[in-house]
């Protein structure tokens, strides 16, 4: 019985034997050399197919070894030529299937579908729509709180000033109401060239100020100050900020909101204020929407994005409140919980 070379790499694959019919042919005088050549041709062809499959995918080598063992066990019931051709075809089909499954797995684990991508984008958009308004409100509250803190420090400065000037509110000597609020405090603006700045020494600002003065002068800058637009009086925009144009984001109540030296705090003493809880000492300019009874005097949206008149007020008694200016409740000098007139009750 002729032993043929092994078909696969594993040493335990086994060997292939001639069938009884082939043995009978050899016994009848057939040429053994020709039989060997004829039967080795499909084996060499089979080995070439195996080598190509192995070189294309390392994933299929274990499968080939297993298939080789299975082929060795079942070859005894098949003729040699039918076994080689059938086994080769079956092996090629299995290799192709394995390679197809591997490619499909790689594609499915490494790529997003269009629907998945759109879902992710939609979730991000929803989260942004929920978070951005909340962040904007938080920012507005922070700016408002900083503005109130600035007003608080100014009330301390006014208290120090009155203690040194016989209980008199900041006043420029012989000047009137306009000179008083123009020289109240802050840095040098582009609208008024005065250098008096009555309150500066009481908030740690010493010496002359300039248009680029920083440091303690920032106590007169409201962080929500974004300037003012046109109004009945204002015919040009005050930009980029009131602080840059006027030297301060705040207006001292020296004129009772009317450039009136009689009803404002200029040259008045503290004991003359009948209701210090209601009378305004200083406010941010956004609250001056109806100054001089204009409708409006200027447009400033600092603390509210759509409504005029909202601003922070510091009162004579020292408390701070966020309020809205009105023109007809009952008038432009008085409103709900506030008044510019020094002797109002």
Report on the structure:
The chain has 345 residues and is of the alpha+beta class. It is built from seven helices and six strands. The chain has a four-stranded antiparallel sheet. Strand 3 (310-315) and strand 4 (320-324) form a beta hairpin. Helix 2 runs parallel beside helix 4 and helix 3 (61-74) packs antiparallel against helix 4 (80-110). The N and C termini lie far apart (130 Å).
Layout of SSEs?
Layout lengths: L19 H8 L4 H25 L4 H14 L5 H31 L3 H51 L12 H6 L59 H5 L3 E3 L27 E5 L25 E6 L4 E5 L9 E2 L2 E2 L6
Antiparallel strand pairs: 1-2, 2-3, 3-4, 5-6
Helix pairs in contact: 2-4, 3-4
Strand order of the largest sheet: 1-2-3-4
Low-confidence stretches: 1-16, 30-37, 56-60, 70-78
Rg, nearest Å: 48 Å
What value does the average pLDDT take? 81
First CA to last CA: what distance? 130 Å
Number of helices: 7
What percentage of residues falls in helices of 4 or more residues? 40-55%
Shape assignment: elongated
């Amino acid at each position: 019985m002729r032993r043929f070379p092994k078909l696969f790499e594993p040493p335990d694959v086994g060997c292939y034997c001639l069938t009884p019919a082939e043995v009978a042919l050899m016994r009848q005088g057939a040429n053994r050399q020709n039989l060997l050549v004829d039967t080795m041709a499909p084996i060499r062809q089979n080995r070439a197919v195996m080598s190509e499959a192995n070189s294309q995918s390392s994933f299929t080598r274990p499968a080939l070894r297993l298939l080789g063992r299975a082929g060795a066990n079942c070859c005894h019931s098949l003729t040699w030529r039918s076994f080689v051709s059938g086994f080769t075809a079956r092996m090629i089909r299995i290799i192709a299937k394995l390679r197809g499954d591997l490619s499909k797995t790689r594609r499915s684990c490494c790529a997003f579908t269009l629907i998945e991508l759109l879902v992710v984008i939609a979730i991000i958009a929803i989260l942004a729509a929920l978070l951005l308004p909340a962040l904007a409100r938080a920012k507005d509250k922070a700016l408002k709180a900083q503005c109130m803190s600035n007003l608080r420090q100014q009330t301390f400065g006014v208290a120090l000033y009155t203690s040194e000037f016989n209980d008199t509110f900041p006043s420029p000597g012989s000047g009137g109401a306009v000179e008083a609020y123009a020289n109240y405090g802050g840095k040098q603006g582009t609208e008024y060239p005065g250098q008096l700045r009555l309150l500066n020494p009481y908030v740690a600002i010493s010496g002359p100020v300039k248009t680029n003065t920083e440091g303690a002068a920032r106590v007169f800058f409201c962080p929500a100050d974004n300037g003012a637009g046109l109004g009945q009086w204002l015919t040009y925009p005050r930009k980029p900020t009131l602080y840059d144009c006027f030297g301060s984001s705040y207006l001292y109540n020296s004129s009772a909101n009317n450039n009136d030296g009689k009803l404002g705090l200029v040259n008045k003493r503290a004991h003359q204020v009948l209701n210090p809880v209601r009378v305004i000492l200083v406010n941010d300019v956004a609250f001056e929407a109806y100054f001089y009874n204009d409708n409006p005097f200027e447009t400033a949206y600092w603390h509210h994005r759509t409504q005029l008149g909202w601003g922070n007020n510091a009162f004579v008694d020292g408390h701070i409140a966020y309020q809205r200016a009105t023109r007809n409740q009952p008038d432009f000098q008085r409103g709900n919980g506030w008044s510019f007139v020094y002797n109002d009750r």
